[in-house]
Design brief:
3 copies of one chain form a homotrimer. The first copy, chain A, is an alpha+beta fold. The first copy, chain A, contains 2 helices and 7 strands, in the order E-H-E-E-E-E-H-E-E. The interface between A and C is medium-sized, with 35 and 23 residues. The structure holds adenosine-5'-triphosphate (ATP) (3 copies) and magnesium ion (MG) (3 copies). Chains A, B, C: Belongs to the P(II) protein family.
Chain lengths: 112, 112, 112
């Protein structure tokens, strides 16, 4: 089992969620975060004033996936999250040793 | 060392926390999340109107545990988080390579 | 690739972030959390009244790092987060199997 964590643009959340559901993803966890990538310290002009790009609001999406579907799910995520502009996000994959569905006590693939 | 992540019903937080403390767990991290499992898209009736079940508020609980106590802690979590109704939650376990207690610099089991 | 997760004092966030940037870290993710460590149940006196230390607000910092810089980054984190008082925080390191920079599709070290 793998855990796919994606830091995405908040305004992309619904579209990404829909694309994952269309693929067949049956659950996900979402939380609020903020962050920045390589453009830190980069100055921008907003309403005439120059300001330093700081922590930008992001959504953190977590999806438990079976190993066999992980690559496909990454493709869905990348193609939906991508706008071509800086700040499109970061995705990382970690190994999960055990998953449990609390109501039924099921473990492993059956629990996702 | 393992990291146990549990997505639980918010109203269960205090009871689960108490049960973990009774078992001997000495620390935990809690954050707000939202999510859904297999009932996505399922319609329900609320105050006479049909609506689609959406992201439900959840609490995300993280507990660093020694490998030797991990199974027991999963049992405590499952038995306390379970109500028998859909939405009881998901638990997953990942491997942790290093843990540090910042104040003392201790590492490994001594740091948890 | 490694993921370094640090639970830190909120008031230390800017200083820690600055120290990481000075070291060369090019991105990070921050979210709000709360928690407690070994002082749970410890009573303190605040404005004359005794109260039980409960969940304290914390910041959760996540940094994807190359394996070769991980130890240095832990040193930066520990030395900046440490005040010598209880509650300085906890840091843990997990293995990351894949990292993707969404805009470019880059993977691995190039994506961090
Ligand atoms: N090294 C990192 N560790 C943890 N989180 C990161 C890291 N880099 C970026 N992030 C998270 O990903 C979010 C989006 O990053 P972003 O897309 O700006 O990455 P980038 O490498 O700067 O790519 P781009 O050039 O397309 O902007 C950040 O707001 C932050 O939350
Ligand atoms: N595949 C998944 N990936 C990440 N998080 C998930 C996943 N499935 C569920 N979750 C998280 O767990 C929470 C609880 O899920 P839930 O208990 O409804 O799972 P379920 O499999 O639908 O079981 P049940 O039939 O008992 O409802 C969700 O709100 C979501 O935050
Ligand atoms: N076992 C644990 N699992 C998950 N998170 C933890 C654990 N222990 C502590 N934390 C997180 O780290 C934060 C800071 O912990 P804290 O620094 O108080 O650890 P401690 O071991 O009690 O050390 P100290 O004696 O210096 O206070 C907590 O608020 C909590 O969010
Ligand atoms: Mg960027
Ligand atoms: Mg469900
Ligand atoms: Mg403490």
């Amino acid at each position: 089992m793998k855990l796919v964590t994606a830091i995405i643009r908040p305004e992309k959340t619904d579209e990404i969620r829909q694309a994952l559901e269309n693929y067949g993803v049956q659950g996900m966890t979402i939380s609020q975060a903020s962050g920045y990538g390589r453009q830190r310290g980069h100055t921008q002009v907003y309403r005439g004033a120059e300001y330093t790009v700081d922590l930008l609001p992001k959504v953190r999406l977590e999806v438990l996936v079976e190993e066999s579907t992980c690559d496909d799910i990454l493709d869905v995520l990348i193609s939906t999250a991508n706008t071509g502009s800086a700040g499109d996000g970061k995705i990382w994959v970690t190994n999960v040793e055990e998953v449990i569905r609390v109501r039924t006590g099921e473990r492993g693939m059956a629990a996702v």
